[in-house]
Structure formats: structure tokens, C-alpha cells
Amino acid sequence: MKLQLNHSYLIASGLFLLLSLVFFLIIFFQQHGFTYPLDDPYIHLSISDNFAHRGIWGISGGEFSASSSSPVWTLILSFFALFPINSLFVPLVINIFVVLGLVYFLKSKKIEDPIIFSILFLTPLIPLVFTGMEHIIQVFISLFLFLFLLEKNSSTPRFVYLLLFISGGIRYEFLFFAVCLGFFHSLQTKSFLPLITFIFTVALIPIFFGIIHIMNSWDFLPSGVMIKGNHLFFHNTSKFFLIGFRNLLTTPHIFIPLMILTLYLAYLNIIKTVQIQTVTYTSFGFLLSVSLLHLFFAQKAWFYRYETYLIPMIILFSFRLIQKNHRWVLILILFPMVIRSFQAHRDIPLASQNIHDQQKRLSLFLKEVPGKKVLLNDAGLMTWKTGIQFYDFYGLGTRYFYKQARDKNWDLNKLEYYIYNNKITLALIYKNWFENRFGKIPDTWRQIGVHQIKNNIICGNSSVHIYVLPSGTKSINKFISKCNRYLSNACAPE
């Protein structure tokens, strides 16, 4: 049995490593280097570098910010930042080892090979690895806790509490997860103690960091959660449910499987030829609850990651529920995931190229103007090891703009006054993003260039407009020279 386990594990792990290597080499030979297909990993890398070397929890080396929605992931990266290694590859390598551990864990639980391969390639885990984010760990913890529920334990092992404790600092969505897990495990044990203890355990790290955020004049929750989440429940209930149902209907890889599973369970209840165990209803109720809470309150999509942790649990439950003579139902459930997986694998190299052509080239430009104060759309690669003092009007890393984004209260006159007081010299922005918030580009800004990329699928816009602000007019010729050296279009005063 041990030999069979090892043989199967080696096949799954070997195929995963081989395909990961193929994608890495494609990216490497395209760019003569490596770039993540998202800007977000560079936010965590920036915070981890600053925390490890300066003791400052923030994207900028001189200012605290509540920018990390995954503090445990950022702390892990901070630990590795203490060593003299290339921190760029740390998130990628960690994710690869987590996937190998996940496959081993599933084999140790005697999960059948078709389920493991479906989880591996339909989640899909390889694109998730290349995002350089914490979502692979989220998948691992979610599957472990879901299997704990499926096994119908009468007590809660200490390791479950440890995972719940860690999970609250991996993704804030685990708060929904813990509520549902605690509720349905309470039904199994006929005691509401698990519900209370699960919620308390998963909330410890968010509460700890929330207090730190407030002590530094930010809100309790991270800036990304506050800006991007659906917080209309207490303000505009009808719009809240409208957004939630829209998220549900535009997420076919979640909506269609859940709908089919609901109908299939109803069918089994009607024909009564199969005895359905209580744990089946419990685990499906958990899946349905977690999925709805996520899609109504949290984010979806954006390079196949936010709701991805739900997919392995749906796959596992579907394989266990669907009868052998009804395998066509399983095909219907998996079909939307197959389409999504194909798209995700296809998009890895192009998304990476987009980030390289836009964000990396702009970061090379900014490295040549060190010490300058720059207004950006967002934090990310342009703020990692560029030596600039940045201000992002999206609000993830700059408290002034965060409060405007949170309250949706943008004022052009106040912005110009803020720019003047802080002596900001440059602006690298998506023009449409800026105009959607502030109405127009200030008359005092001088455009010196537009950096454009082709075949964009991941960046906020294909074009980044570059402006010299009033405090930087004395250096305009220097800016133009550096702009012409690093960016796509020749730069010149407007």
C-alpha cells in the first residue's frame, strides 16, 4: 500500500512540477527574467522588506499602512527577507512546496486519484502558484477543515484550532468559513460550543492587527477589504443583494455546480433508492453557506483567485455524492471548471508579460529618479525597491487617499492642495481612473508621455499617463530623458 501511495504521489507531484517548470521557462524566455502575473505580490514583498529591515509595517519605508489583507503571509515573507536571498522567488517557492504538501495530505487521507488530479488542475493550482499570493495556503487549510467536517468528528482536535488560528491571518474570508464550520459542526456535536470557540479562534489575529491599525490612525480592517468589499448590507440592502446575486450569476464555476448539486440532492430524496447520511446534508449546507457569504460580502475573480478555495471543496463533495451510474452529472458539474482552468493556464504568460511591460518598465524609470515623490494609481511593483516616496490615490497604502476612497469623497481642490504641501513631483496614472474620481486632470500638470502596452488582460489600463507636477517642473528635462530611455513612447513636453 505504501509503494502504491508513493507511486501515485510521485505521478501527481511530478506532473505538477513539470508543468510549473514549463510555465516558468515560458515566462523567463519571454522576459529574460521573471515577473508575477499580478501586481499584488509586490505589495506583500514591499511590506515584508520594510518590516524585516526597518521595523515598519507599510508599503513605504517611512509610513505605516494597513495594506496587508494577509498578515500571516506577509510575516512569512518578512522572515525570509532577513536572509541574503532573492526575495522575488520566495512566494513562488513557498507555493510550490505547499502544493506538494497538499497532494501528500490528500493521499494520506486516501483520497482517490481522480479527485486529486481534478483538484490539482481544475482549481487550478498552477496559475494560483504563479500569483505569488497566499491563496494556495488558503486552499490547503480549507480542504483540511472541510475533511474534518466530512469525517463527522465528535470532538475537535487541537490541530484544527491551530489551523483556525492561522487561517484568520491568511485570508479574512476565513471569518465566514469559521462561522459556517462552527455552526454545522455544532449540529453534529449537538453543542454550540464549537461555534463560539471557532469564531473566537479565527478572529484573534484579525483583532490583534485591527487594534494595531486603529493605533496608527487607520480603520480596523485592512484598506483592501474596506475599499474592495461589498459593505452595503447596513446602508443599501437592495443594492447589497443586487451585487451579491450578480456576483453569483457571473461566477458559473461556483453557481452551476451548486445548482446541480442542489437539484441532484433533491432528486435522490425523491427517488429514495439511496440512503443519504446526515453528514452529506451538513457538508452541503456548509458549502452552500460559505459560497453565498463569500460571493455576497467578498470579492470574486481577478485572475482566478479570490473564490478559488471553494472549488476543491465542491470537487471533493461532488465526487463523493454522485453515484457511479450518474457520472454524466459529475461531468456537468466539472465542465465550467474545465473552461475556467483552460483560461487560467492560458493567461499566465500573457498576464506576466503585461505586468512586465507596464509595471516593471515603469519601476525601472522610477529607480532613475530616486528620492522623488510620486503619485501612483496603486501600490505594487512600482513601489518595491524603487526608492521613491509614493502616494497611491487608490488608497491601499496612503492614509489620506484611503479615507477618500473609503468614503467615495474625492475633491480635486483638496488634492491639489495636498500635492502642493507634500511637494509631489510626478504622477504616473491611469487617466480614466483619475478622471472617474476627481473629474479632470488639473490644469497645472504637464503631460510628458504615455506608456502603452499591447494585449492587456490584467493591468487596470493599457496606457499610463505621465505628468510632471508643479513641484517638479525644474527637473522636467531630466524626467523626459529618463522617460525616453525606459518607456515605450517618446516623451516630450505637451
Describe the protein's architecture and organization.
The protein is mainly alpha-helical and 494 residues long. It has two domains: 2-346, no CATH class; 350-486. It has 20 helices and five strands. It has helices at residues 2-31, 40-54, 71-81, 90-108, 113-122, 125-130, 135-150, 158-170, 174-189, 193-215, 223-228, 237-249, 252-271, 278-297, 310-321, 327-367, 399-407, 412-422, 431-438, 476-486, and strands spanning 373-376, 389-392, 426-429, 446-452, 463-468. It has a five-stranded mixed β-sheet with strand order 2-1-3-5-4. The longest helix is centred in the last third of the chain and has 41 residues, at 327-367. The termini are far apart.
Helix and strand topology:
Blueprint lengths: L1 H30 L8 H15 L16 H11 L8 H19 L4 H10 L2 H6 L4 H16 L7 H13 L3 H16 L3 H23 L7 H6 L8 H13 L2 H20 L6 H20 L12 H12 L5 H41 L5 E4 L12 E4 L6 H9 L4 H11 L3 E4 L1 H8 L7 E7 L10 E6 L7 H11 L8
Parallel strand pairs: 1-2, 1-3
Antiparallel strand pairs: 3-5, 4-5
